[in-house]
């Protein structure tokens, strides 16, 4: 059952001062935990950027340098994306709870407009039976679209640029293909694998975008618990 669903109608609950203070401390705790996990997300992205930088510097360090490091770094990027998706699932729990309290508890204080009282039951159920609000696949798709797509784009441009113009521009398509060869594997096989690799990431990005839109609508919901 989606946490966005309204619970059974209950009479409006008026919080006493002690309960108000407890909710304030609860909110501070959720914001703190979301901030900690946000930092962990940034750390994983930094690792991906650093490894990409090392691969770039190695590949373009000399005319004789191989483009192989740019190929192998793709494995590390996939591993970092998987780690970041796992961390995002935890971050999303704390973020969603904090936004839920902001929308349904604090915002009505400023506007004077009452929201659906079911929000209290929704939040209580999330504390009683905590779970991830987003699947691993959707989490990976979000991180791919927001961060890793740019890193992967740099990887692709650098790789094809390496075999096309470094150390000298390729004079023909045949020479371009020959430069892509890795050991016993001919260049055309490597290029096909590279194209499939890039198209696979694009398909994954758009596929998970469709899953997000199906869950939250075309524009998304910035205060959804998930």
Biggest sheet statistics = none
Helices and strands: which structural class? mainly alpha
Helix percentage range: over 70%
Number of distinct beta strands: 0
Order of helices and strands: HHHHHH
Work out the strand percent: under 5%
Round the mean pLDDT to the nearest integer and report it. 87
3D shape:
elongated
Q: pLDDT below 50 for ≥5 consecutive residues: which ranges? A: 1-11
Please, how many domains? Answer: 1
Radius of gyration: 24 Å
First-residue to last-residue Cα separation:
12 Å
Count up the helices.
Answer: 6
Transmembrane segments: 66-85, 148-165, 185-211
Pfam families: DUF2270
Protein name: Membrane protein
Keywords: Membrane, Transmembrane, Transmembrane helix
Describe the structure.
With 226 residues, the chain is mainly alpha-helical. Helices cover 73% and strands 0% of the residues. The chain is built from six helices and no strands. Helix 1 runs antiparallel to helix 2 and helix 4 packs antiparallel against helix 6. It is elongated and about 80 Å long. The N terminus is likely disordered. InterPro entries: UCP01500 (IPR014470).
Give the topology, please:
Layout: H1 17-59, H2 68-111, H3 118-128, H4 136-165, H5 173-179, H6 187-216
Helix pairs in contact: 1-2, 1-4, 2-4, 4-6
Which keywords apply here?
membrane, elongated, about 230 residues, mainly alpha
Précis, in short:
The protein has six helices and no strands. With 226 residues, the chain is an all-alpha fold. The protein has one domain.
């Amino acid at each position: 059952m989606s946490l966005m669903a309204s619970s059974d109608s209950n009479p409006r609950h008026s919080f006493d001062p002690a309960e108000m203070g407890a909710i304030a401390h609860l909110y501070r705790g959720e914001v703190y935990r979301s901030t900690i996990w946000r930092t962990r997300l940034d750390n994983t992205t930094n690792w991906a950027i650093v490894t990409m930088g090392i691969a770039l510097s190695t590949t373009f360090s000399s005319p004789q340098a191989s483009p192989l490091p740019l190929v192998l770094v793709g494995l590390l990027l996939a591993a970092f994306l998987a780690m970041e998706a796992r961390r995002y699932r935890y971050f999303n729990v704390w973020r969603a709870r904090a936004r839920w309290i902001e929308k349904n508890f604090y915002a009505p204080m400023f506007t004077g407009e009452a929201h659906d009282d079911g929000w209290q039951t929704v939040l209580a159920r999330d504390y009683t039976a905590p779970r991830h609000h987003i699947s691993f696949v959707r989490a990976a798709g979000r991180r791919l679209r927001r961060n890793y797509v740019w890193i992967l784009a740099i990887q692709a441009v650098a790789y094809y640029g390496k075999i096309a113009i470094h150390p000298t521009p390729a004079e023909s398509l045949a020479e371009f293909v020959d430069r892509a060869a890795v050991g016993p594997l001919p260049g055309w096989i490597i290029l096909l694998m590279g194209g499939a690799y890039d198209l696979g990431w694009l398909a994954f990005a758009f596929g998970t975008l469709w899953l997000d839109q199906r869950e939250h609508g075309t524009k998304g919901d910035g205060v959804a618990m998930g």
